[in-house]
Every structure is written in C-alpha cells, then in structure tokens.
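Q: Convert this sequence to structure tokens.
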Amino acid sequence: MILQDKVALVTGGTAGIGRATAIAFAVAGAKVVFSGRRDEEGEKTAKLIRETGAECLYVHSDASNEEDIKALVRKTVATYGRLDCAFNNAGIEGFTKPLHEQSVEDFDQLMAINLRGLFLCMKYEIQQMLSQGSGVIVNASSTGGVIGFPGGSLYDASKHAVMGLTRSAALDYAKQGIRINAVNPGVIATEMIDRVIHQWGTTADGLASMVPMNRIGQPKEIAQAVVFLCSDAASYITGQPLLIDGGYTAS
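A:
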C-alpha cells in the first residue's frame, strides 16, 4: 500500500471525484478525513471507506468558511496526529453563459468556494505541514484551468487562479518538504457534468464525441492520479498540472 499509515484529507468528499478519491486513499492504506455539506451523502462515503477496512472521519464543513476550515484541519490532527496528504476538491461550476450576462452574485459565489475556499484550505494545511516538515497537497483545477470555454468565463477564471496558487505556493515551500500539484480533469461522469449537460443542451454522447478517446472519464481515474501525486512515486513533482482529459487539450 503506497500510502500505508498516512493521514489524508479530502474536501468535497461526499460525491463524485471527492468520494472516489477518499476511497482510493483508503485502499492505498491511508486514514481518511473528508468533508462536505451533505451529511447523508457523507455517511454513504464513510460506509464505503469503512468497507475497505480503513479508518475515516467525516466532518461537516463549508469550504468557503475560514472557521470551518481551521476546525477541519484541527480535527484531522486531533484524531490522527498529523496531516500527510490533502486533496482540495470542493468546488462549483456556476452558470454557463456569456460574461456580460453573469451577475456580481454569480462571481462572488463561485470565487468564494473555488478560489477563496482553496486558499483557506491551503493556508491551514500548509501551517500543519510546516510543523511536521513534510506533506503533499493536490488541488482540483480543470481543463478550464489551462484553456477557455465559451460561457465559462467565471469558472475558467477560478480554475486558472487555482493553477496560479498551486505554482506559486509550490515554489514557496519546495525547500521545506511540501509538494503542491494540481489535477486538471476533463469531462468526468459526475453530478457536475450532468448539470453542465443540461445547461449546454447537449447529451453525454455529445460531450464524449468531443474527446479524442471518445468517452467520458470516471471519477476513479482522477482519484488514482491524486493518490499517485501524493505518493513517493511522485517525489520529484511539484508545481505541476496533471491533465486527465482523454486527450482533449492535446488537439
């Protein structure tokens, strides 16, 4: 097990990529803490983790709330003694429409979670990792963090900002035993993609046809990449995006 006895934290772990990653951490040998706002879904994730034989803790937490994030990291350390790996996954997609039709409220809500929330998570995770002298952080960006999409101005801006935070923070802590990278998923079978399909007025097959591999990715394919980046197999990788998009951005 490549993360045997490590302590891993996942935000937005109640469904989709977050749930798949929490389970993948458990299978890899880690003790898992995960957070979210949907308690019923959180209990489902906890049940799936415990079925692997791993220990876990679910914490109700709003990723945009500073006190919640401080408490989340504090509970992680109080329960398991340290924090070795963190996957900052909590995020929303907002509304797909041209920039001039976006409202200030749309902007503020999306940035509060996708950007401010990520900053808060990194801030308190890094504080703990500095006290230990080691740690790994993986941030959830997107293909929208390296290219743009029509109607995606706010979402893409938030995910480009995730890459800026990732790269600069990686340089800040490269000499202090902390690695920071990002995963950049493409079209993945999640509730978010279901909503995007509805907003775009398309179908799953229509989205899949845009991908060179001609299929929609699965949450576990992102989860496996996160586990890799958190493991010693990725010990010389920091400040990097890992595009997992079926070849979409290669064309």
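Strands lie at 7-11, 31-36, 56-60, 85-88, 135-140, 178-185, 241-244.
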